[in-house]
Every structure is written in structure tokens, then in C-alpha cells.
Design brief:
- The protein starts with a helix and ends with a helix.
- The protein is elongated, with a radius of gyration of 19 Å.
- By secondary structure, it is an all-alpha fold.
- The protein has one domain.
- It is built from 10 helices and no strands.
Length: 215
């Protein structure tokens, strides 16, 4: 249940970030089609959710973006693309902060059902958002990482890339099915989680101080 709730929060925020950024850059397609919302039912892709629940990373139904509405299509598409993973990393960092704050407030009193399940949820929430960000930065269309690469391609190669973009989802399925993505995503995600743990270390110091005072 904790994983499902975390997914229903994380995926909509990811897509909302894309749509809202696109709106700021001049494209209101997502808003006009009712996709500029945090309602998870407007964003969930059944296969992407199943992938999240089974292998730990997946995707939502992409918000519609019309690059022709941008002043600089290639650059602005890259900006829109990166905002999805950034939104998930922000959520993950918030999750790590809240988890450590919960550990201070409740200390090690996991006998409280609320405290126990809150910590489980925040842990899942942080991990899911990190893996979602890392997964979407893979340089395979239609994932966000491919949008960043196309920003630097010459126009003739960019046109070819876009034309065959639909094949990318097949590549993603193959990589997921054979587990080729498991280790790279796990390693990068662990690096990011350790970094977040490091920058929130003052909360660990505070927790140790509180424990010493109470005990």
C-alpha cells in the first residue's frame, strides 16, 4: 500500500512538472487537454504503474507537448524534459528530511502503528522518487534523458531521431525484461540516496542529541 500511495503521488507530480514548465515556455497543450493537474487518474499509464510495482521503476502517460509553440523548440524541450526528474529528486529529498524528522519525533518508538507505517511510507517515497528520476534520465526515447541529448543534435539528425522515437519504447521493454537496467539504476540511485543522507546529516546529529537527553 505504501508503494502504491507513493506512486500515485510521484508520477502525477513528474508529469505536472513537465506540463507546467511547458506552459511557462509558451505551450499550453497540456493545460488545454486537462493534463495540467495533480490528479493521478489523469496521468497514470497502466503498464508504467505495473513496472513500478514489479521492478521498481516505470513511467506515467506523458503529457502532450507541442514543441512548435516554443521560441526555441530544441532548447525548451530539453528544459521541459529535465523538470520531471528534478521534481522527483526534490520529492525524494523532502522524503528523506521528513523521515529523519519522524525519527526524531518518534525516536525508536515503532510500537506506535502510525509512526511505524509513516516511516515505511517515507522510505518508499524517497526511494521510488529517486529511481523514477534516474530511470527517466536514461538516454532512450521516449524517456526524458533522450530529450536532453536531442538538444545538442544537428537538425538533420534531430529530425531522424524524432521520426523513429516510437521504437524507443520497444528498447525500454527489452532492457527492463532482461534486467539490463537493474544494476545501473540501483547504483546511481544509491549514490543519490547517500548524497541526500549526507546533506541531511545535521538531523542525524539532532536525533542523537535528543536520544541522549531523553535516555
Amino acid at each position: 500500500m505504501a508503494r502504491i500511495i507513493a506512486i500515485f503521488i510521484s508520477l502525477p507530480v513528474h508529469e505536472f512538472a513537465h506540463g507546467y514548465c511547458a506552459k511557462l515556455l509558451g505551450d499550453k497543450t497540456a493545460e488545454q487537454q486537462g493534463r495540467l493537474t495533480l490528479n493521478p487518474l489523469r496521468h497514470l499509464d497502466p503498464i508504467g504503474v505495473i513496472a513500478m510495482l514489479t521492478v521498481g521503476f516505470g513511467w506515467a502517460s506523458p503529457v502532450p507537448i507541442n514543441a512548435s509553440n516554443f521560441k526555441k523548440p530544441k532548447r525548451d524541450m530539453a528544459i521541459v524534459a529535465i523538470m520531471g526528474p528534478i521534481s522527483n529528486l526534490i520529492l525524494a529529498l523532502i522524503g528523506v528530511y521528513l523521515l529523519k524528522i519522524a525519527s526524531i519525533v518518534f525516536l525508536n518508538n515503532d510500537s506506535l502503528i502510525f509512526a511505524y507505517y509513516l516511516k515505511i511510507f517515507l522510505n518508499y517515497f524517497s526511494i521510488i522518487n529517486i529511481t523514477l528520476a534516474v530511470f527517466n534520465l536514461i538516454i532512450v526515447p521516449p524517456l526524458d534523458g533522450s530529450r536532453l541529448v536531442t538538444c545538442f543534435l544537428p537538425q538533420k539528425y534531430y529530425d531522424v531521431f524524432i521520426r523513429f522515437e516510437y521504437l524507443g519504447i520497444i528498447v525500454v521493454f527489452v532492457l527492463l525484461f532482461f534486467g539490463f537496467l537493474d544494476m545501473p539504476i540501483m547504483v546511481v540511485s544509491e549514490w543519490i540516496l547517500k548524497f541526500f543522507d549526507w546533506i541531511t546529516y545535521p538531523l542525524d546529529i539532532l536525533r542523537n542529541f535528543v536520544m541522549n537527553v531523553v535516555m
